[in-house]
Amino acid sequence: MSYLITGATGLVGQQLLTRLLKRRKSLYCLVKDDDNRQRLLDMAAKLNQQRLIIPIMGNLRDPLLGLSETDLEHLKGNVTDVVHLACDRDFGNITNERVKRHIYGTEQVIACGHAIGAKRLHHLSSIAAAGLYRGCFDETMFSQAEQLTHPYFLSHHLCEKVVRQQSDLAFRIYRPGFIVGDSQTGQANRVQGPYYFFKLMQRLGDMVPKWMPLAGFEGGCINIVPADYVADALDCLIHTPDLDGQCFHLTDNKPYLAGEVLNLISKANRGPTLTLKFNMNLGGLLPQPWLQLASQYPPIAKLGQRVLADLGIPQDLWSMLNYPTRFDNHNAKRILDAAGIHCPDLASYINPVWDYWERNLDPELFIEQAICAKLANKVVMITGAGSGIGRACAQRLATTGAKLILVGRRQDKLEETLALIEAKGGKGLACPCDLTQDDAVKQLISERLSQEGNVDVLINCAGRSIRRSVQHSTERMHDYERTMAINYFARVRLILGLIETMASQGRGHIINVSSIGVLTNAPRFSAYVASNSALEAFCRCAGAEYADRNVSFTTINMPLVDTPMSAPTELYQAIPTLSAAQAADLIAKAVVKRPKRIATRLGIVGATLHALSPTIAESCMNMLYRLFPESGEIQPNDKHYHNQQQIIGLAAMLRGIHF
Ligand SMILES: NC(=O)c1ccc[n+]([C@@H]2O[C@H](COP(=O)([O-])OP(=O)(O)OC[C@H]3O[C@@H](n4cnc5c(N)ncnc54)[C@H](OP(=O)(O)O)[C@@H]3O)[C@@H](O)[C@H]2O)c1
Q1: Does residue 459 surpass a pLDDT of 70?
Q2: Fold (topology level) of 3-361
Q3: DSSP conformation letters of 155-220
């Protein structure tokens, strides 16, 4: 037995190759270009099997796979089995055009097998060939498939049909469940299928603490299998005699419900549990015409698309959560059980799969490329760039290819930041300006717009904070005026000066560094929180006006950060804070994703508590207000002095909230 294999460098292909090699037969592997060929040669070198793994240049899009005369001649009589693994397993990318290509590719695999005198075709199909069949689909069923409307289902179904109807070779068909990485190492090569939900659960884990119970749903059974199980099963079934013309389900006998799968993913992420389950079919009790109307109403549809795009989930994948099909795998199981091959329980291997995704496949790992693509040759204005978060942000963006306009009052500080970014190969300009002065800001804007044409991203960092209770502010109206002057009016002044140019050029992003205090209503910060809240309110209204002109607003509810601003408060020296570089990472994330808001988990819990039970929230904050001392108040004879350990412990637990 020797083999011609398509898709040898894919997720299943790589694993299958290592198993087939044990039989010491030649593996002719179709490679479509030099990159693909090199990948295969690297694999062969790693396995020290350059003699047995032989690349064959060709393409599924060409007649007879585009094999050269020489290759066809060489393969003739040398190949007994054609193993067709290549196909699109990515639910998110498949289009009707690609369906046609897959069908054509499968036809050419058959034609090529015939031309080289192969005996048998092994076709890796998918459970998707059943469509969205309601009930139990067994290995003898094919034409009973239902609801093949999505190209992903259609493609697998029609390719299988080609094999069944057009193959003049003997054939075996294998239908695996949704394939994830290796059950031991988690290794996979791309994000597809269940991986799309990893980002969703990661976001949830970032936003909500582990102990918080959440409402979830049950959904349908999602049949997930690891790549090594599929490869073991293929290796066994390919080499078992007398199975031609049969179909095998390579599925999990006890698949989990969609809600349980999300919970397992969340557990692997050490995130919260979706405890309260509701049945998604309950949606059926709601008036359907209303639901349909609502979901087709453009703003609602657009909103849904934006949420899914933000999470990187293909729109149609959402419908898979209610997957209606179960799979009977008696035929495959009988043979695989005898060979000692069993599909492992998802719960036993979700951890390595998650870890591998988080370390190698998470799209946010590629944030560096994304941010460079976003900012290359763009103009970014950073206020407060002479120190703290603003300076760290300038350093973070220095290597993106953007021109950085550095704004603040102290020229020497701005020059220092400029030197730091130039040392990293960045480019920028120090523009000293007191942002509370109307004329100075007008001049800054007119100079910059005439020189640069537009400011593509405005990062409002310049600000001031005042930690003083209302009780101690009764004679200090100027505190309220000073915070409003820089945290609200100065930022609005800049936005008003730049926004119309942004909108007329069809691109603009305004990022405001606000505070977690806005979400938690921190006592002693009434002046500071009110000024930031005013800006958030302004941006919510302006955002609604500019959403269709591609100008977006992002608010970052920053927790406590170690900068010159927080330094004077002694208490903050003893508790964990974010570093300025970590704060700059949040700004970088905002640049790439353009979300409405970036907040920490504690901030979201605080906002939720204030929304659900304002009285309880107020009492909690009052208790904390009484416990924490006023700035400069800790004296040996003060009660706070004796409570200090308790205070520091509590502040560490409520990491990031200022008191
Ligand atoms: N540090 C934290 O814990 C924390 C937490 C949440 C939110 N934030 C927010 O993050 C932002 C940056 O704070 P930071 O911690 O980096 O503080 P920082 O180091 O004190 O930086 C504040 C910057 O604002 C500039 N600035 C102040 N008044 C100005 C004016 N009138 N015109 C122009 N620039 C002015 C200052 O530069 P010049 O003095 O040279 O003008 C300084 O570079 C602030 O808006 C703050 O409210 C900070």
Answers
A1: yes
A2: Rossmann fold (3.40.50)
A3: HHHHHHHHHHHH--SEEEEEEE-EEES-TTT---SS--GGGHHHHHHHHHHHHS-TT--EEEE---
